[in-house]
Design goal:
Layout (H helix, E strand, L loop, with lengths): L18 H4 L40 E7 L4 H4 L3 H15 L5 E4 L5 H8 L4 E3 L9 H4 L2 E4 L5 E5 L4 H4 L6 H12 L3 E3 L9 E3 L4 E5 H4 L10 H12 L3 E5 L16 E5 L2 E6 L7 H14 L10 E6 L21 E3 L2 E6 L3 H14 L4 E6 L1 H4 L10 E4 L2
Parallel strand pairs: 1-2, 2-3, 5-6, 8-9, 11-12, 14-15
Antiparallel strand pairs: 1-16, 4-5, 7-8, 10-11, 13-14
Amino acid sequence: MNDHAESHADGTGGSGRRRFLKLAGLAAVGTTLATTGARAGAASLPQPTAAGAFAVPIEDVPHTRTWMAWPDSTAIWGGKLSGVQADIALIARTIAKYEPVVMCANSGGAARARSLCGSTVTVISSIPVDDCWMRDTGPVFRTDGAGGLDAVGLNFNGWGNKQTHARDALVAERIASYVGVPFTYADLVGEGGAVEQDGAGTLMATRSSLVNSNRNPGMTERQIEAAMCAAYGATKVIWFDGVRGQDITDDHVDATSRFLAPGQAVVQMPLSTDTDAYARDARQQYNILNASTTSGGAPMEVSRIQGPDYYKIRSTNRDFLASYANYYLCNGAVVSGQFGDTQADAAARATLARLYPDRVIEQLNIDRLGTGGGGIHCVTQQQPVR
């Protein structure tokens, strides 16, 4: 769940993003995870080793299934809930054309989830949820290249205790148990949308999201980097400054920059006339990646995907996320948003088709979900084949 929108009104963006979610259910926050360090009693992850080590693969590997979560809280979504549910169901049905989808729903919402998602999506009510952002709450699955699969939890704390998360804090561990794989909590607090991996030792992330006292108080950047590398089976982090305090995620990387392959990345670029904090952040990410190398020392090859004109998209909501880069890769397809700027939508489709020539490009109208500051990648979590 991310926030990379710009304001229609004045081009400055920022202050209004996802505020309506920040106000929801904060009384329950104190009963969940503390913001410091790893979950109490959890084993520390070993530093990765070269042979047979568990590591998070890049997302274009074959998947066993996609995990999603069904939102049913009017305290969080208010009158937007039914529209958001319709968008979640559309995403689930689309992915289910290519691979199995399992939707975690509360017992009171499971019937509606089944009705809207249809028979191609499996809905379970044994893993309760607070909200729909499975990228951030779900387990990060790892493989060892020899048929092994395990999972890591990132100690989700409601993006720095900004939203109720008593159920969401347990989703990662409960899914791992459901799948029947070993599970460990990482030695940092974060979210899946805050980290991008190339599957070959290199990560990218924003300091604003992770080197932040609302997640990891008292930890230095170096300590956080070591914990990330241990959790993901990586050896290098490419850091961006990000945008601090402007949205609920503190600027997740997966709304702007994505790995295509080891040594290859794509960045969603703003219009040349965009000058807000998120536009400056995107340009910085592009420049840093162009000057970076992989964990193995190879130069990065960086592609661009042009973002839309916020004056031409359908939504006029200033919390809106219009990120083509927040796409999801499933078996045989790329599932991305389209936002009503017809020229930019067509150009984004063409760019994705060029970047992923062997996959079907699915573009979906997810405008209701976008008003929550998130996109398709934010509400999905892949389980790779062993």
